[in-house]
Write a sequence for this structure.
C-alpha cells in the first residue's frame, strides 16, 4: 500500500523519461542480435530505416555490423537514451547510426532507404493524437523501389486468449505493477504501469491496436506493398494461431 503522502505522477506517454521500457528485462543485447540476424536474412539493402526505434537496440546492432541506419522515435527520452548508448560504440560504428526525434509519418528523408524496420507495437500505437494509420504509406514513400519492409505486430486472437490482466515484479517496497485491458470496441490493449517506491509512484500508460492477418495484408496492399513472407516471430518460426506476433516481409511497389 502506497502512503497518501507519496507523490504520484501520471504520464500518458509510456515512452517518456523514466519509462519502464528503458529497463525492460527481456530487451537484451543478445535478443537484439538474434533479431537482426533474422532481419539480415530477409534483407541487406542499406541504408536502413528503423521506425519506432525506442532506445536504439536494433539500430545500434546494425551499426555494429557496419550498416548505415537512421532511427526514428517521437519520444525525446528514447532518442536521448539511444544517443547515450551510441557513445559506447567505436567511432567508426557510431558514425553509422543517426537518431531523429520524429514520427514515421512526419519523416521525409532526402534519400531513399533500402530496408525499413517497424517492430513490436510501433504500427497501431495509439497516442494523444490518435492511431498512426498513415504510417505504412509514409514508410513506403521513404523506400527505394522494391525496398523491403519488415513489420512486426501482435496477433489479435492469440494475445486476447492469453492476456494476463495483471503482473507484479519486484519487492514489497520497490515494484512494478501492470494492469492490462482489452477494449473490443477499439480493438486496443491498454496497459497501465505503476513504478512504486517508498517515495514515489509513477504511472505510465501504453495503448496499441491488435491485428489479424487479413487486416495487415490489406493495410500493406493499400500502402503500396506486396507481401513476400509471413513469420510467427523475428526468428523465422512458422506463423500459427498461437503465435503472439506476426512478422510480415513486404516489398515496396516500384
Amino acid at each position: 500500500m502506497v502512503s497518501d503522502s507519496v507523490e504520484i505522477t501520471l504520464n500518458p506517454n509510456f515512452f517518456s523519461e523514466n519509462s519502464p521500457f528503458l529497463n525492460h528485462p527481456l530487451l537484451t543485447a543478445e535478443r537484439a542480435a538474434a533479431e537482426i540476424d533474422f532481419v539480415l536474412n530477409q534483407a541487406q539493402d542499406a541504408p536502413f530505416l528503423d521506425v519506432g526505434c525506442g532506445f536504439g537496440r536494433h539500430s545500434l546492432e546494425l551499426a555494429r555490423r557496419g550498416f548505415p541506419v537512421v532511427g526514428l522515435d517521437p519520444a525525446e527520452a528514447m532518442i536521448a537514451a539511444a544517443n547515450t548508448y551510441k557513445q559506447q560504440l567505436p567511432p567508426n560504428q557510431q558514425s553509422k547510426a543517426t537518431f531523429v526525434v520524429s514520427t514515421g509519418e512526419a519523416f521525409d528523408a532526402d534519400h531513399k532507404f533500402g530496408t525499413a524496420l517497424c517492430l513490436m507495437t510501433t504500427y497501431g500505437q495509439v497516442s494523444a493524437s490518435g492511431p498512426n494509420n498513415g504510417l505504412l504509406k509514409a514508410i513506403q514513400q521513404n523506400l527505394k523501389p522494391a525496398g523491403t519492409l519488415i513489420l512486426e505486430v501482435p496477433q489479435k486472437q492469440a494475445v486476447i486468449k492469453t492476456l494476463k490482466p495483471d503482473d507484479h515484479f519486484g519487492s514489497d517496497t520497490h515494484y512494478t505493477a501492470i494492469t492490462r485491458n482489452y477494449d473490443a470496441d477499439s480493438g486496443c490493449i491498454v496497459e497501465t504501469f505503476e513504478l512504486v517506491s517508498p517515495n514515489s509512484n509513477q504511472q505510465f500508460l501504453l495503448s496499441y491496436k491488435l491485428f489479424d492477418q487479413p487486416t495487415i495484408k490489406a493495410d500493406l496492399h493499400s500502402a503500396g506493398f506486396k507481401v513476400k513472407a509471413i513469420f510467427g516471430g523475428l526468428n523465422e518460426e512458422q506463423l500459427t494461431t498461437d503465435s503472439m506476433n506476426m512478422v510480415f516481409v513486404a516489398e515496396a511497389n516500384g
